[in-house]
Design a protein that fits this description.
Layout (H helix, E strand, L loop, with lengths): L7 E5 L5 H20 L4 H19 L2 E7 L2 E6 L3 E4 L2 E6 L8 E7 L4 E7 L3 E7 L8 E5 L2 E5 L4 H5 L3 E2 L2
Parallel strand pairs: 8-10
Antiparallel strand pairs: 1-2, 2-3, 3-4, 5-9, 5-11, 6-7, 7-8, 9-10
Length: 164
């Protein structure tokens, strides 16, 4: 069991899963088609531009690394980062969070990010690039549950570690 004051872990996000890769490719192709067809129709061009804006936002909010230091979890994205303080627990994610209801966020364009709900975890935040049960780590920070997908989940948690 690691001491919260001495524990420092930095890992890249896991490579994109096949399903996320396929969703991303299909979305990019549809966006490109709308932009090209926009030559003939203003409405299609507006839709293409809207899809392009969403694509860029999702691309830049894709997690690329995770850092757990001094009781804080930092999600490093392509552009910027997001932090959670007061991390108390770091374990493999229970159950199968991939069967969840998205309340707000991105459900597969370059990553799965946002706020989700399922019957096992309740409401949780996700910053994942893979969705297999063995690929996911659950971090508890205060009353929040955060699901991440580091490159090596077992090494990220070290063991079923309670950090209190």
């Amino acid at each position: 069991m690691a001491d919260i004051d001495t524990r420092k872990i930095v890992q890249n996000a896991a490579p994109q899963s096949f399903s996320i890769l396929i969703i991303s490719i299909i979305y990019c192709v549809i966006t490109l088609i709308c932009l090209l067809l926009g030559i003939f129709s203003t409405t299609t061009l507006v839709v293409g531009i809207l899809l392009l804006v969403i694509l860029v936002l999702c691309y830049f909010s894709t997690p690329v690394a995770y850092e757990l230091t001094d009781g804080c979890l930092k999600i490093i994205m392509r552009k910027g980062s997001f932090s959670y303080a007061a991390v108390t627990r770091c374990t493999m994610a229970p159950g199968t969070p991939m069967f969840s209801l998205r309340l707000f966020g991105n459900g597969g364009l370059f990553a799965g990010t946002g706020i989700y709900w399922n019957s096992t975890l309740g409401i949780f935040r996700a910053y994942v690039t893979r969705a297999g049960a063995r690929d996911l780590v659950m971090i508890e920070a205060g009353d929040k549950k955060i699901i991440i997908s580091p490159e090596d989940p077992a090494a990220f948690i070290g063991e079923d570690t309670d950090l209190t």
